[in-house]
Amino acid sequence: MSRDRPSAGPPGQVAGGWRAGDPVAARRFAQVGELQLDSGGTLPGVQVAYETWGRPNAARDNAVLICHALTGDAHVVGPAGPGQPTPGWWDGLVGEYLDPDDWYVVAANVLGGCQGTTGPSSPGPDGKPWGSRFPSITIRDQVAAEAGLASVLGIDRWAAVIGGSMGGMRALEWPLMFPDRVVTAVVLASTGYATAEQIAWCAPQLAAIESDPFWLGGDYYTEGVAPVAGLGIARRIAHVTYRSEYELATRFGRRPQGDGRFAVESYLDHHAAKLAARFDPGSYVVLSRAMNSHDIGRDRGGLEAALHGLKSRLVVAAVDSDRLYPARLSSELVDAYPDAGPLHLIKSPYGHDGFLIELAQVGTLIADSLGA
User: Fold this and answer.
1) Which of these, 53, 23, 28, lies nearest to 152 by C-alpha position?
2) At residue 22, does pLDDT exceed 90?
3) Range of 328's domain?
4) With pLDDT > 70 as the criterion, what percentage of the chain qualifies?
5) In angstroms, rounded to a whole number, what is the distance separating the alpha carbons of residues 75 and 53?
6) Residues 86 and 183 in one domain
7) Does 322 participate in catalysis according to the annotation?
8) Contact 366, 184 (CB under 8 A)
9) Confidence band, pLDDT 50/70/90 cuts, at residue 7
10) Core-most of 77, 110, 151, 344, by most CB within 10 Å?
11) Residue of 121, 122, 165, 312 marked catalytic
12) What per-residue confidence (pLDDT) applies to 372?
């Protein structure tokens, strides 16, 4: 057995994520063809998995795009079931705050993901998983793939593009890349660029996955193994940044679990196991690096210059207890683009995840923004 290739069991699907042949659930698929990448290269045969709620109106001006965060997918609302291991990650948003009788809501699994959109676990042109051959992509490439989906759906202009965290990065890039295709951009708990600290938090997560003996350089898909231990460590690190110190202190304190672990350790272990069961480590690496690349000022003269010619309405909200994407980063966007109006502050003890948890505050803001 070579040092860099541990013994593998019989080939099979080990890593989480959706694969062709799995139950489709509510997914639909759009073939958007060859994608020109930010790097100058191309990615052939791009497929985008998506879900929709409601219908386009006669004028086709009621379409809303929901952009998910790092480990999300197109399943915004709805139950878990065959082919869909988790319930909707923003359950209650569509229906209660976005009425499908009024809005045609679309959500797509992001480029590089693992829930039906082309990513490292997808078949390449030779039929084998892309693996290490999958190109480096950026947030702008992800938006370009979503624009391809919009064209397939016949949506020339979004009434709104809405997203938080990594989804907020895309919601911000959308009106910059396609200024005539977005009426309102709602950016939640996000930033105009990846900061040094965000990149630093990401570094040990990437190291954990790529140091796992079953990473195999990213080409583990046909080996019957997967770097799920490394993915679990990455999730533990990330999840601490998603929650506030106050919540962890008040919820867990120093309480022992009874099995040699503190309760907070058990909590992190639980979330690590959940992610490993549904997500692909290769996608985690690709998407994390895409987030690190995020900078709306790149090749546009900086943050303020990038926003100067913005044609879309911009709505920016931060979570007051967010330590990963602190409110000051959202304030920078508002300061650079005063037409955005005041910064909306979501009050929450939960930290970064508050943009998902505080549905009443966020849903009301979204509904009010669309009503305006």
Assistant:
1) 28
2) yes
3) 28-194+295-371
4) 96
5) 11
6) yes
7) yes
8) no
9) very low
10) 110
11) 165
12) 64
Residue 8 pLDDT: 41
Same domain, 96 and 172: yes
**Alpha helices, DSSP H, located in 212-280:** 228-242, 245-251, 263-278
Sign of CA dihedral 167, 173, 177, 180: positive
Residues 75 and 211 in one domain: no
Residue 94's contacts (CB-CB under 8 Å, 6 or more residues apart) are 53, 76, 77, 100, 105
Query: What pLDDT score was predicted for residue 14?
Result: 74
- Residue that has been written with the tokens 């080996």 in this structure: 223
Query: Among residues 291, 326, 341, which one ends one of the domains?
Result: 291
Neighbouring-strand partners of residue 108: 50
Average pLDDT over residues 319-333: 98
Tokens of 30: 């759009």
Per-residue model confidence as pLDDT tens digits over 127-144: 999 999 999 999 999 999
pLDDT band at 102 (very low <50, low <70, confident <90, very high): very high
- The residue from 294, 322, 344, 348 that is catalytic is 322
Q: Is 27 annotated as a binding residue?
A: no
For residue 43, tell me if it sits in a domain: yes
Burial status of residue 152 (CB atoms within 10 A of its CB: 0-12, 13-18, 19 or more): middle
CA distance 343 to 327: 9
Q: In what order do the strands lie in the sheet with 63-67?
A: 28-36, 42-53, 104-108, 63-67, 158-164, 182-188, 313-319, 344-346
User: Which residue type does 267 have?
Assistant: Y
| Type of residue at 41 | G
- What is the Cα–Cα distance from 41 to 299, expressed in whole angstroms? 17
Residues 40 and 149 in one domain: yes
Residue 163 has pLDDT above 90, yes or no: yes
Confidence at 84, pLDDT banded by 50, 70, 90: very high
We report the CATH number of the domain holding residue 268 as 1.10.1740.110
**Residue 101 known to bind ligand:** no
Q: Are residues 106 and 157 in the same domain?
A: yes
List 121, 280, 352, 369, catalytic entry:
352
Does the annotation mark 352 as catalytic? yes
Alpha-carbon span 236 to 271, nearest angstrom: 7
**What's the total number of domains in the chain?**
2
- Whether residue 359 is predicted with pLDDT greater than 90 in this model: the reply is yes
Instruction: Identify the pLDDT of residue 252.
Output: 98
